[in-house]
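Chapter review: from sequence to fold.
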Amino acid sequence: MDRVLSDEAILQLLNDDAPWGDLTTSLLIPAKTTARVDFSARYPMTLCAAEEAARMFQLKGATLTFVQPSGSQLNPGDVILSASGLAATLLTVWKSAQVLVEWASGIASAAREMVDNAQGVPVACTRKQVPGTKALSIKAVHAGGAMMHRFGVSESILVFAEHRQFFHTCSGKTLFQLKQRAPEHRAIVEVHNIEDAMHWAQSGAEILQLDKFSPADIRLCKTHIEKAGLATRLGIAGGVNPGNIHEFIAAGADFIVTSWPYYANPKDVQVNFIPE
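The token string follows.
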């Protein structure tokens, strides 16, 4: 996969950790000492951010000799990247690059687990990334085989109850207005109970986002929609994780909306230095 962080952003990550170099390394390691560093998977994982980590080493003058692409499915011991150069350079970059891969791969692996358990039903991740991590979070979602529900509020339409309290037009008129003013977009309406869901479905909503519905209520909502001959699709948001996703799919989910991968544990990366 392509890098999503600029050189400037990557250097800023390095500068956050080593703004004036690596004191320990400068005190202990002779300046001309050379080495190779290998990153490898400690456990099974879906890899992400290997390209950004590799670029960290390159920007500091190391030579990249191998890198696995983001999205790769790795087994324990599989090499992620290898770089050679001055030992001082490799030691300075080491931890920033390792943390980046571990964190992003945690999201990617969680997204992959959701996708694998979804039985072919699409998994869409929300815009609720940790602030400041949007670019890499989106890359990790894609590396894990999921898709983005919304990149942000500028390019997509999702009508919340919080929006609806500010206008008093009927639901049908609201949907017509959205179609007239944004004909290239599909509007999603978030609802919180079966009655609200059926009201918007009968008004012509193409997509409903069922927020925190139980599987039983999803099944009932799906039944009502099918009996009414409506084509409304149901996105399920809130409370879905790899352990229970099958329950929501069996209940009638057309797609899953989740923030769960963003809060997954990092995937451990083994780092080995080999003096040359």
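Two observations follow directly from the output. The mean pLDDT is 96. The CA atoms of residues 124 and 149 lie 5 Å apart.
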